[in-house]
Design goal:
By secondary structure, the chain is mostly helical. It is 75% helix and 0% strand.
């Protein structure tokens, strides 16, 4: 069964591709949006060892995005 968030995730990835030359703020916001969609999809699934590994990777990506916002936002 597919996720209800699969279509918005695809749209967000297409938006990220088409905004490759846009400002850093726009691209980072799109990356964060994709991250949130992936996180929501992972939370909606039944827990397995593989899913826990995936969730750890998704959470690490979220921490990296927060670090980018904290370091680049003052410059933006």
């Amino acid at each position: 069964m597919g996720s209800a968030l699969a279509y918005p995730t695809g749209d967000a990835l297409i938006a990220l591709i088409y905004n490759a030359g846009n400002t850093l703020r726009t691209r980072l916001a799109l990356v964060e949006y994709v991250h949130c969609l992936l996180h929501a999809q992972a939370e909606g699934r039944s827990t397995t060892a593989a899913l826990n590994t995936l969730k750890d990777r998704i959470n690490q990506l979220g921490a990296d995005i927060d670090e980018l916002w904290d370091s680049y936002e003052p410059d933006l």
